[in-house]
Every structure is written in structure tokens, then in C-alpha cells.
Amino acid sequence: xxxxxxxxxxNNFYFCTLxxxxxxxxxxxxxxxxxxRNIKATAMRQLVLQVLTEQKTTxxxxxxxQKFYKADKxxxxxxxKTFEENKLIHSIDDGTGSVKYAxxxxxxxxxxxxxxxxxxxxxxxxxxxxxxxxxxxxxxPVKFQLESVNMVxxxxxxxx
Length: 160
Ligand SMILES: [Zn+2]
Ligand SMILES: [Zn+2]
Ligand SMILES: [Zn+2]
Description:
There is one protein chain. The protein has one domain: Orthogonal Bundle (Arc Repressor Mutant, subunit A), CATH 1.10.10. The chain is 41% helix and 18% strand. It has helices spanning 3-36, 43-54, 61-67, 73-85, and strands at residues 59-60, 89-92, 100-103, 116-121, 127-134, 152-155. The strands form 2 sheets. It has a 3-stranded antiparallel sheet. It has a 3-stranded mixed sheet with strand order 5-4-6, with no helix packed on it. α1 packs across α2. The relative contact order is 0.11. The mean pLDDT is 89. One zinc ion binds next to β2 and β4.
């Protein structure tokens, strides 16, 4: 066996191990996230959460449907509903007519006090979670009860 071949083999082995290791870590992380929200891990749920984790901005239903075109649409929709009910994700109505989804912070309870501002770019039409900007406190008239706040700011994002 030539030294170069051997080196290539070792290198390749090392590389593969590294990738497998990363995949295992990622899967563990996904399962941990599901567990923390009392959601039973199924293959579909793991895959959907994986996609949601990879997003830099929010993702709309149509984009998710494209990624899971082989899966049954109602299964995908039910998965999202379960995630939302268990506060793993939140949905955003940004006024564009297509609902967007994003992961919640670990500590999020989707209570009005947990809510943040969303930003919709009028150029690329992407919607961002501005998690560092909480929605302002709203003092409602007496006997009015606050349930939820949907605050969407529009403008041009830093990528456009
Ligand atoms: Zn939330
Ligand atoms: Zn933009
Ligand atoms: Zn958000």
C-alpha cells in the first residue's frame, strides 16, 4: 500500500467519522428540543424541526411544502400545528397572505410578554424574527383582555 493511498484512506475515514459525528450530534439536539416541549419524536417531526432549525429567517408554508413534496400535506400541517401548540414554534401573520413559521426561543412560552417584533422586507419579502426587540407594552382600556400581539415592521433588510 503506498503511503499516499494510505493517507487518503485515513483522511477519508477521519472525514466520514467527522460527518457522522456531526449528524449524530445534530440528531441528538433535535430529539432534545422535541423532548423539552413534550413532543414525541417521529421521523416526520425530526425532519421538519431539522429544516426549521436550519432557517436564518422565517419559513412559509409553501416553502416547507416544497421541501416535503413527497410527504402528505396534512401530515406536514399537523406536525406544524403540534409544534405550535407545544410552543416549539410560532406562526407569523405578516400581512402578505402566507403564514410564516419560526422556532421559539428555548424559554418562550408564547405569552404576550415573550413576544418579539417581526420585520418584513419589502424587497425580498423575507420575514425576520427580531427576537431582541420585545413588543411594546400595551395598556388596554379597563375590562379589555390582551391575548396576543402581532407586530410587523416593514422596510428593507440588511441583505437588500
Ligand atoms: Zn413562542
Ligand atoms: Zn430583504
Ligand atoms: Zn418570531
